[in-house]
Amino acid sequence: MTKRFTAAAAAVLFVAGIGVGYGAKLRPTPATYQNKAPADAGKALLELALVQSGKNGSWERIGAGRVYYLGGMKAEGQAVFDAILNGKHEDSDVYRIARVYAEAGEWDKAKPLFDRFLAANPEDAKGLAEVGAYYMLHGDRATAENMFARALELESDDPWMSEHMAGAYLGVRPQE
């Protein structure tokens, strides 16, 4: 999947007249976005971001996937997420992708990934507090309060956890 993104980005840069020498680092320039429609400028920059992220930059690739997904190019964002989740990845990648779905208002997609993360990381107090907040925001107070209690058993002196929990009761999403 990354090879396709690399090839697409290289083709876009070549056609745009930027010209990329063999082995040269791909970098955005004003020609990448100037005088282009916003969607075209954004897409060109995202293609570069994926190339810049390389094979091992899952956090960075998730960041690009997030912008695709939330920027109205869901299929492209989903392709990035699928490539990461279908390959070797860290539990934190699952969590970050779940956050994107939650930010997009797609709880049905976020919830199973959050649950998967917590099953693999049952001692992650901050994760329990944040995911519990999402449960609360989606009307499942019992599950949320259970997660909050488990989180506090593990760590009770973290202001971010307290803020996630407070926000949930007040209708405020967790801040990343």
Automatic annotation (TrEMBL):
<dbReference type="InterPro" id="IPR019734">
    <property type="entry name" value="TPR_rpt"/>
</dbReference>
<dbReference type="InterPro" id="IPR011990">
    <property type="entry name" value="TPR-like_helical_dom_sf"/>
</dbReference>
<keyword id="KW-0802">TPR repeat</keyword>
<dbReference type="Pfam" id="PF13174">
    <property type="entry name" value="TPR_6"/>
</dbReference>
<protein>
    <submittedName>
        <fullName>Tetratricopeptide repeat protein</fullName>
    </submittedName>
</protein>
<feature type="repeat" description="TPR">
    <location>
        <begin position="91"/>
        <end position="124"/>
    </location>
</feature>
<feature type="repeat" description="TPR">
    <location>
        <begin position="125"/>
        <end position="158"/>
    </location>
</feature>
